[in-house]
Structure formats: C-alpha cells, structure tokens
Specification:
Elements lengths: L3 E4 L3 H14 L8 H10 L4 E6 L2 E11 L4 H4 L13 E9 L8 H15 L4 E7 L3 H6 L3 E6 L8 E7 L8
Parallel strand pairs: 4-5
Antiparallel strand pairs: 1-2, 2-3, 3-4, 5-7, 6-7
Helix pairs in contact: 1-2
C-alpha cells in the first residue's frame, strides 16, 4: 500500500505521531508530547504525517528559525524557532519499523523540503547522528560540521540544504 503524506489534522493525530517518535528514538532523544503539540500548533505547515489507510506510518516535522544551525534552536526545547524565520530546522523524520527501507523517509523529507521552498525559505537545516550523514547526503543535504555536544549520548552532525541561490554583490 502506498502511503499518503499530508499535514497532521488533529491533536489525536499528534498523539499518534508522538507515539511513533517514541518508538523510533531513545527516551533521551524523543521530543515530549508538549513539544509535538507546540510544533503542530505553531508550524502546522511543517508537521507532515504519512498514512496507510488509518495507520500512521511516518512523520516529518520542523520549525522555522533564523538560527545558524538546529543546535541553536535547542533541538528538544518546547518553544524553539521563530515564526518568520527564513530557514526550516527539521527536528524529526520517523518511519514505522515495518516501513523502513522502502523510501518513505526520503518521501517525507522531500515533502517537507518542498513546503519550505513553497514558503520562500532560504535553507533547510537538520542535525543527524553519524550513521545517517550519508543518507541525508543522498537526499540533497551537505554536512557543515560536527556538533560538540553529546545530546542523548550520540555524536551529532549539522546538515544543510540551500533552497535559494546566493548572489554575489555587483
């Protein structure tokens, strides 16, 4: 069955999304239910869900920001981001274990990037664990450096995708 990707529509869907995140990430890395509600209420265009019939099988969410990287946003803080920020910080891409390896994560990532483009944003930022750097590179991101913090006991890398051409003066 092909998954349908669409914005989350209700608090119940956000509760289901949080359960999926909790199943995909360790407790130290998973966002709180309150953070999920905040992200959805504040940035509804950037809280996407993937459904197979009535079953949630994936999600991608982020916040707008003007920070240089997602670490500046405070990756798990409740009130991160800036509503008129020119960048999108992707905070989560999660896929049900039964659907991993079939391209759904890449489709969710592409969908949230497309929303950022349509929203006129300049860049998409994210932080990822070492084992995911190549996957994000294959999906159009480039690494910008190692983060000197071990949030959740793992090594983090900053990644970026520029959406607008930088123009030189003159």
């Amino acid at each position: 069955m092909t998954a349908v990707i669409r914005p989350a529509r209700s608090e119940e869907e956000i509760r289901l999304a949080h359960r999926l995140e909790a199943a995909c990430y360790s407790p130290e890395l998973a966002a709180s239910p309150e953070a999920f509600l905040y992200r959805w209420r504040t940035y509804p265009d950037y809280f996407l869900t993937a459904w197979e019939g009535e079953r949630l099988v994936g999600l991608a969410c982020g916040v707008r920001t003007d920070a240089e990287d997602c670490f500046d946003v405070g990756i798990k803080k409740l009130l991160g981001g800036s509503q008129d920020g020119r960048k999108l910080c992707v905070l989560s891409v999660a896929v049900d274990e039964s659907r991993r390896g079939g391209g759904l994560g890449a489709k969710l990532l592409a969908a949230i990037v497309e929303r950022a483009k349509r929203g006129g944003l300049a860049e998409v930022l994210l932080m990822c664990q070492s084992g995911l750097v190549r996957w994000y590179e294959a999906n159009g991101f480039r690494p910008t450096g190692l983060i000197h913090d071990e949030h959740g006991g793992v090594e983090w890398h900053d990644m970026i995708m520029k959406l607008t051409e930088e123009r030189l003066p003159g």
